[in-house]
Structures are given as C-alpha cells and as structure tokens.
Design a protein that fits this description.
Radius of gyration: 16 Å
Number of strands: 8
Structural class: alpha+beta
Distance between the termini: 25 Å
Largest sheet: 8 strands, mixed
Shape: globular
CATH class: Alpha Beta
Strand order of the largest sheet: 1-2-3-4-5-6-8-7
Number of helices: 5
CATH topology: Aminopeptidase
CATH superfamily: Gcn5-related N-acetyltransferase (GNAT)
C-alpha cells in the first residue's frame, strides 16, 4: 500500500511558477477563483458564495494534507506570491497507487502554458516521489481545453459515462482520462 507523508510540504518549482502550500492567507484569491463563473464553467461543484466558503475549502485542503489523503498546491508566479490557481491530487487510492488530478486557473492566466508547467511538475512529483502507478482525471466532456491538456501530457480517455453525475438539478456526463507511470508504460511495451 502507498505510504504518504506530506508533513514536510513539497514546494515545487517550474520555469515561471512556484507551487506552494495553500494557506488561509489565500482566502481572497481562492474565493475569486471559486466564485468566477468562467473559471467554474466546467467544474461541476458549487461556486463559492462567501469568503467563508473559500476558507472552508482551504480547511478541507489542510485536513487532507494533515491526514496524508489529499495534496494541493497554490500556483504562483515566481515574482509574485499571489495565488493564481490550484492543482491537486485528490481521491488518492493508496491501495491502488492511484490518484485523481484536478486543477483550476484564473481566467487572465489562461492560454499562457502555465497549467502545462504545473501539470508536468505535479505528475513528476506524483510518479517519482509519491510512487503513484497511475493518475486519472475526471472532466466535463465539454471542457475541450482540459481534454487537450491531458492528452498533451499522455493521458488517454478510457471512459465516457452518460449522465453518471447529478449536479444542480441535472444529470451530467463525465469523461475519465488516465495516465500510467512512465515505468509502467515501459514495462507494458517490453
């Protein structure tokens, strides 16, 4: 079984980004992200209505890290410590060496390649440090940009579930993408 220890929080770095721990000091930025209808368009979760919603979300992240069940990073530009997005491994299945990746980015930072940098760093951490065997992503099938990002990183769409998710009074479809650890891909080919 996968053994995780996030007590010494892993700060990650890319060419332009610093991925650090999300803290309560980020509440305004988290609220800005989770209350923005453009950012939340394909994230089938309730939007933040108050700053307390953002604080509760941050507390959920902190609890997950403390319990070694969940890890999320604040995306910040290296020259500015302000949170512009979040990327996480949630729904970690320790017995299966598998985690689900999720991400969110402020609209004014879209289409700059920043999430590509973050995904690369987080997948490297997941496969090489956490020792994950596979990573999945569950997306709204209408989210073409997320699908392209996943495919660019080697993810393969493995499933399409019709109306498997109930949110906001509607049944929604889900697309499931998956990526095996590079070593597992190599072993499969041999």
């Amino acid at each position: 079984m996968l053994v995780l220890d996030f007590s010494n929080f892993p700060v990650l770095s890319t060419k332009r980004l610093l991925l650090r721990q999300v803290t309560k000091a980020d509440a305004n930025e988290v609220f800005g992200l989770r209350s923005d209808s453009n950012v939340m368009k394909y994230i089938d979760r309730p939007m933040a209505k108050t700053i307390d919603d953002a604080i509760n979300y941050i507390q959920k992240i902190e609890n997950g890290i403390t319990n070694n069940d969940y890890i999320a990073w604040a995306l910040t530009l290296k020259e500015n410590n302000t949170l512009i997005g979040i990327i996480s491994f949630h729904r970690i299945e320790k017995e299966n060496y598998r985690a689900e990746i999720g991400y969110i980015l402020a609209t004014n930072f879209h289409r700059k390649g920043l999430m590509q940098e973050a995904v690369t760093a987080v997948l490297d951490y997941g496969f090489n440090i956490m020792k994950l065997h596979s990573v999945e992503a569950v997306i709204n099938p209408a989210n073409d940009i997320s699908a392209k990002l996943l495919e660019k990183n080697g993810f393969v769409r493995e499933a399409y579930f019709k109306e498997n998710y109930y949110f906001n009074g509607k049944f929604l479809d889900s697309a499931i993408y998956s990526l095996l650890a590079p070593a597992a891909i190599k072993e499969k080919a041999e």
